[in-house]
Amino acid sequence: MIKHWWKVLGAGLVLYSLIVGLSVPLKSGVLDVSPSMLQGGKSYDLIINTYNATFSDENPIDVWIKVDDDNALAARAVKVLGETKLSAHFDIPNYFPNEKENWAYSIIINDKTNGAFIRPRSIAVKFDQINKEIWKNNPVGSLYKIDKMTFPFRSVLYETIRNTYYHVPMWFAMTIIFLVSVFYSIKYLRKKDPLVDLKVRSLTTVGVLLGFMGLITGSLWARSTWGTWWTFSEIKMNMAAIALLIYLAYFVLRNSFDDEEKRAKISAVYNVFACMAMIPLLFVIPRVVTSSLHPGNGGNPAIGGEDLDNTMRMVFYPAVIGWILMGIWLATLLYRVYKIEYKLLDDDV
Amino acid sequence: MKSIKFLLTFLFVHISILFSFAAETDDIFFRSGKIYIVIGVIVIIFIGIILFLISLERKVKRLENQININE
Amino acid sequence: MFLVMKNIFLHLQCMNLGTEILVLLKKELVLEWRQKYAISGILLYVLSTVFIVFVSARELDPSTWNSFFWIIILFASVNAITKSFVQEGGNRQLYYYSLVSPLAVIISKIVYNVGLLLLISILTFFTFGLFSGSPVQDLNQFWLAIFLGSLGFSITFTFISAIASKSNNSATLMAILGFPVVIPILLMLIKLSSSALGLETKGNIDNDILILIGIDFLLVGMSIILFPFLWRD
Asked: Residue C87: its pLDDT value, please?
């Protein structure tokens, strides 16, 4: 059992990421606001659809249109239409202190049971005439905070933000496993031990499996958030595809040799060469492609910023470590089978 | 290689079924906060691991047969 | 005393390597001259591909011009370089190997292929110019891209051809093994040449060139380190 601690750890971390990643609820959020185009000087009943919130008549609910950091407009009356549906009455004045063309304002909702939540840039206001005197500031008051553990609510993503714990670790595990295979390829070239070549073989097989799982899950996720199964302007997808192409080519190369020693040697050389040829891609990519839909590129916030908050990190990092260990576990299983196969063949000869 | 081919074809078949299902039901996804996408992702990973296990079992079976013949 | 000895020894070694490379280069040239069909085949290949491109597309806007140009060069160089190790049968290779060092073999092949690819690229460029006029605005930068491209392609494909020649179906393997590996170079080249075509603003061109040179150095280094593992078996 002591010897197997890392397998237990890997399985445990993956299990933890499954349980916690699926059971922690999302923070409350605003799904949509209608109407979203408002005219200065008129009154509106804004219908606000929310997600993961439970409103009731007992708690007072505040709704603001946030104009800028200091100024906001409060709703005159808020009605609860359903558990997740609100109607907020606003009298839009003829002037907002930050008055810009095509500027969209945020909506803030605040109540005791759900805490405060915001929908950035959800309302546009147009002013036909301007009357600066009429502005009366109702700054955003003290906001409720809830102590419950929640994952951030992102429009478009919604619940799929949880895929961070299932899709992303595939790539991390794949990369690590390919790097380990390159390490063993170098070791093979130095030692010429056929068992080391079997290690490379099993590692690359598992790496390709992880890569395909990452590709397919990513494709599914992309369909739901970006609307396409595949986009060529998306550099992380291209890089993943290149890595997979290299290793599929690696298997074709392996299979074109009958002689074991030759196969092991030449595929090891290719593995090292291809890996080294990929390193420049890390420098090339940011220069060639300036736009990316993934976080961390082309103006999207990076991991470490808003995209991965502390509660998400508590699940994400364990999931990555867990999947790396699981990948290595699968590879060792395969390696043992290959090893037995090899020894049996040796005995026959 | 054979096992990988087998694995890939099966993955693709399963996934394409899932995809066609997904395309028709964007609406349901939206209302439920797209939780089905997460379930789909987990199912894909599960299928991947199951396929790996199946191919591993076939290999082990081959080895077992070999040993029986040898004995 | 020891240092002087060592220096002389090193010098001698360099001389040896240098002469070996020169001899091998001469051999490549003579071989090429004797089998004129090979090189003329490649040149004809370039001509006919360019012809087909312009017959089917008639008019090319600069960005398509750019990508067609590099794709034609890519395929032509795969075709040209495939033979560099494949055409020499196992026995003849064994004979070389007993005479010269592996370093001389790989370096001479790379140098020879750089020349060959330069020839192909220049020919492609002029044929393109003949058919459609050239949209290139910064000619110097474009020549630089062509030179760096020939260098990168020839290093990568020469090494890949050394790998592929060990197998029986080397022609297929060349493309499968080579294309994923060459993508970083291709991306950088297209970027460099598209700024020479005036499609992109010229920011940090020096940096791009440095990266390309860096890639070339890395690949040469890897080829030199890894080739000795390939050469005798």
From this structure: 72
Domain ranges in chain B are 2-70
Of the candidate ranges A145-159, A275-289, C71-85, C165-179, the one whose mean pLDDT is the lowest: A275-289
Distance CA C21, CA A117 (A): 72
- Read off the CATH number of the domain in which A71 is found: 2.60.40.1930
A284 touches chain C (CB under 8 A): yes
pTM, 2 dp: 0.83
pLDDT tens digits, B14-57: 555 554 444 444 444 455 678 888 999 999 999 999 999 999 99
- Domain termination site, one of A99, A134, A169: A134
ipTM, two decimals, is: 0.84
- Residues on C contacting A at a C-beta cutoff of 8 Å: 156, 159-160, 163, 166-169, 173, 176-177, 179-185, 187-188, 190-191, 204, 207-208, 211, 214-215, 218-219, 222-223, 226, 229-230, 233
Tally of domains within chain C? 1
Residue C92 has pLDDT above 80, yes or no: no
Reading across the β-sheet that carries A29-34, which strands appear in turn? A29-34, A43-51, A85-91, A77-80
Mean pLDDT of A171-187: 94
Q: Are residues A88 and A219 in the same domain?
A: no
State the helix-helix crossing angle for C62-86 and C102-132, rounded to 10 degrees.
Answer: 150
Query: How far apart (Å, rounded) are the C-alpha atoms in residues C93 and C160?
Result: 16
- The answer on pLDDT for B11 being more than 80 is no
Domain range holding A318? 158-348
Query: Which helix (DSSP H) or strand (DSSP E) does residue A238 occupy?
Result: helix A235-255
Range of the domain at C105: 2-231
